[in-house]
Specification:
This protein is of the alpha/beta class. 44% of the residues lie in helices and 17% in strands. The strands form two sheets. It has a seven-stranded mixed beta sheet with strand order 3-2-1-4-5-9-8, with helices on both faces. Bound molecules: S-adenosylmethionine.
Length: 277
């Protein structure tokens, strides 16, 4: 399949799912964990103030959260439907002054921003994973790093290749014949390798590290975003009903989510890096 066909497939998918994307991180306690754990590590590494790029920011969950905390934010996304929804949500939250731009563009070409413009760069929820070409992913990583100032934190989260294999076992066994393809190639084209999602690349943790290290980024931490809860959706949602048990589990989850045994097996994982060049 040609790159342009893949690109159009990705755009069409996200145009049709903007409302779902707004709900995704809040739909139930299990999915909230990705949001909570990501925010925990944002708080750990973000400077006290500054201008943040939320690249592939979708309908703006992270933009709105960070704007509420006093950061200036620029939200960039590929898909106009996402941007329209983000405009509405930002306005409704009364944050239009903090959100400096809501702008259409691809992470592959951030030429609208000068070098060293931002005090932190976010690329969360796998925008990088919807580029099915290694050279283009490298260009996107280069762009994300270029627009950040020296020493700033860079946050990139993606869908895990090993996590997808566990999903095959748990939820979509009828697609098991594609397991070896997922494992060795890591590229997913709907129709060719299953159904139910758009074109995507699944990452191994070391692959994401290599991608950013090659652009002059020091990897500070790798984090399994669903951590020990990963794939235990029903059990996690049940636990939420007991406030004390949930509190303990969240502490355990945050203490263990950087363990190498946890990172790659999570549905999503996050790289936190520092631009050193
Ligand atoms: C799963 S959503 C994540 C949204 C948000 N970052 C979050 O974590 O909640 C992925 C987003 O990446 C965007 N996207 C995909 N490819 C992109 C690209 N090449 N450049 C910019 N955004 C892209 C999609 O339009 C979508 O809004």
């Amino acid at each position: 399949m040609k790159d342009t066909e893949v690109d159009n497939m990705v755009k069409d998918w996200f145009a049709a799912t903007s409302r779902h994307e707004w709900r995704r991180l809040k739909q139930d306690p299990y999915h909230q964990i990705e949001f909570i754990v990501t925010l925990h590590f944002l708080h750990k590494y973000l400077p006290e103030e500054g201008l943040i790029l939320d690249a592939g920011g979708g309908p703006g969950r992270y933009t709105i959260e960070l704007a509420k905390q006093g950061y200036d934010v620029v939200l960039l996304d590929l898909v106009p439907e996402m941007l329209k929804l983000a405009e509405r949500k930002v306005k409704r939250a009364g944050l239009r002054r903090r959100v400096k731009q809501i702008v259409e563009g691809s992470i592959e070409d951030l030429s609208m921003f000068g070098d060293a413009t931002f005090d932190a760069v976010l690329c969360l929820g796998s925008p990088l994973g919807h580029i099915l070409n290694q050279a283009r992913r490298e260009k996107a990583a280069r762009e994300l790093v270029r627009v950040g100032r020296k020493n700033i934190p860079i946050f990139a989260s993606v869908i895990s290749r090993l996590g997808v294999l566990k999903t095959l076992l748990i939820r979509i066994q009828h697609e098991m014949r594609y397991a070896k393809h997922h494992l060795t190639v890591g590229d997913y084209i709907p129709g060719a390798h299953g159904e139910g999602f758009t074109a995507a690349h699944w990452f191994l943790p070391e692959e994401l590290c290599d991608l950013f290290e090659a652009q002059g980024v020091e990897v500070l931490e790798m984090i399994g975003l669903e951590g020990l809860s990963s794939h235990f959706q029903k059990e996690t949602n049940r636990l939420y009903k007991d406030e004390e048990k949930w509190r303990i589990w969240m502490e355990v989850l945050l203490e263990t989510c950087t363990h190498p045994a946890v990172v790659g097996g999570s549905e999503h994982f996050l790289l936190v890096g520092r631009k050193i060049e």
